[in-house]
Amino acid sequence: MASLACLRAGAGLVTAAVPRELVSLVGAIAPELMVRGLESGAEGSASLKNMDSLEELLKGIKAIAIGPGLSTKGEASEFARELIAKTTLPVVIDADALNAFDAEKTKDLKGFGRTMVLTPHPGEMARLLGCTVAEVEKDRIGIARKFATEHGVTLVLKGWRTLVAHPDGSIGVNTTGNPALAKGGSGDILTGIVAAMIAQYPDNVAEAVESAVYLHGLAADFAAHAMDEKTVLATDVIGCLSKAFRYRVEDEDGLWWICGMKTRSES
Q1: 11 burial class (0-12, 13-18, 19+ CB within 10 angstroms)?
Q2: Which of 10, 77, 96, 262 is the most exposed place for a label (fewest CB within 10 A)?
Q3: What separation, in Å, do the N-terminal and C-terminal C-alpha atoms of the chain show?
Q4: What is the DSSP letter of 250?
Q5: Phi/psi of residue 187, each to 5°?
Q6: Is 55 exposed, middle or buried (0-12, 13-18, 19+ CB in 10 A)?
Q7: Is the Cβ–Cβ distance between 75 and 48 less than 8 Å?
Q8: How far apart are CA 233 and CA 51, in angstroms?
Q9: Angle CA(181)–CA(187)–CA(189) in degrees, nearest 5?
């Protein structure tokens, strides 16, 4: 799902690195998707043996997304930590790649001098900090800002009014989205969109990530309008991305807002 969303969000070439046993299954998702088989460990998870072979693959890559479908079994968590530590490429960390870090290991998540985007939901955020979900929800803005500035990362704290906290301490509050995004797989879709946007706009990471979050929520709004919040699936959101990208609204200053960018009205 993350790979398909990445393709739909404008990435020219997307490679899904999955266990060899799943190459055919994943490759059938879309003919445009490239698939790379990974060596599996004893429990079917990503093995550390893949590190050397991935170095060659990463030479032609502009951004990495790691976590969706990764698992925490076997060597998967160590694999995630080592890949994140060794690469200097822009990286989006989600799902089980976030679960590879606890409050102690989080100190190794240093994004200073590189692009590192974390996309936790409140439960994952609590795990990263070693606190409770209630504590996270009590001070979402304060916690997001502190984590982003202390670690030099961009933090996307998901939930009602998803927050995007930047290394400089600034905060973006997203206004799109609906309860349909609480369904499984929605985070994977967001991860793919974020990866696509930072790959396309590496020199403007702040707006790229904020736009990705906005477009994800807006596509979900279009999907809910066409269907119903109860019936919308994560993959339905991908199908509405084109509507989100083409959406524009005129504000009181006569400026068109297109994907988060201002342009002068033609009138």
Answers
A1: buried
A2: 262
A3: 40
A4: E
A5: -65, -35
A6: exposed
A7: yes
A8: 34
A9: 95
Name 18's bridge partners: 37
Is the Cβ–Cβ distance between 121 and 127 less than 8 Å? no
CA distance readout (Å), 147 to 62, 89, 96, 187, 231: 25, 21, 19, 20, 35
Contacts of the segment 180-184: beta carbons below 8 A, 24+ positions apart: 180/220, 180/223, 180/224, 180/229, 180/230, 180/232, 180/237, 181/216, 181/217, 181/220, 181/237, 183/232, 183/233, 183/234, 184/234
**Domain 2-264 class?**
alpha beta
Residue 92 · residue 66 · CB < 8 Å: yes
Which one-letter amino acid corresponds to residue 222?
F
What pTM did the predictor assign? Answer: 0.92
Distance, in Å, from the CA atom of 152 to the CA atom of 230, rounded to the nearest integer, reads: 38
Cβ burial of 56 (10 Å; 0-12, 13-18, 19+) is exposed
Beta carbons within 8 Å of 179's beta carbon, 6+ residues apart? 229
Residue extents of the structural domains in the chain:
2-264
pLDDT tens-digit series, residues 9-20:
999 999 999 989
Q: pLDDT tens across 113-164, in order? A: 999 999 999 999 999 999 999 999 999 999 999 999 999 999 999 999 999 9
